[in-house]
């Protein structure tokens, strides 16, 4: 039985380099964006242990999004783009 789709926007597969910038800007973590929609993404890390519930995600093209973690696994996060909610 398949899980019902809970996302407001469908996500498209992606493979983009990114960086999580923690509050204060003093710590960063490299990551890969694995899928993407206008309102969120699935992001993979070496480990998600040090990633807080909210952080800024910067894409390789310089685009940034303020993110909130919606779900968490050992190496993956599902994030919602907080700035997309404001628009």
UniProtKB/TrEMBL annotation:
Family annotation (InterPro entries)? PilZ_domain
Q: Name one GO molecular function term.
A: cyclic-di-GMP binding
**Per its UniProt record, what SUPFAM superfamilies does this chain match?**
PilZ domain-like (SSF141371)
The source's domain of life comes to Bacteria
Q: Which organism was this protein described from?
A: Rhizobium rosettiformans
Please report the name of this protein according to its UniProt entry: PilZ domain-containing protein
- Span of domain PilZ: 5-83
């Amino acid at each position: 039985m398949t899980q019902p789709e809970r996302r407001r926007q469908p996500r498209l597969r992606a493979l983009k380099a990114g960086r999580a910038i923690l509050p204060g800007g003093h710590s960063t973590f490299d990551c890969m964006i694995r899928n993407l929609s206008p309102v969120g993404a699935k992001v993979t890390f070496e480990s998600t242990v040090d990633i807080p519930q909210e952080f800024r995600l910067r894409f390789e093209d310089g685009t940034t999004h303020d993110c909130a973690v919606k779900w968490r696994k050992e190496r993956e996060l599902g994030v919602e783009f907080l700035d997309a909610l404001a628009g």
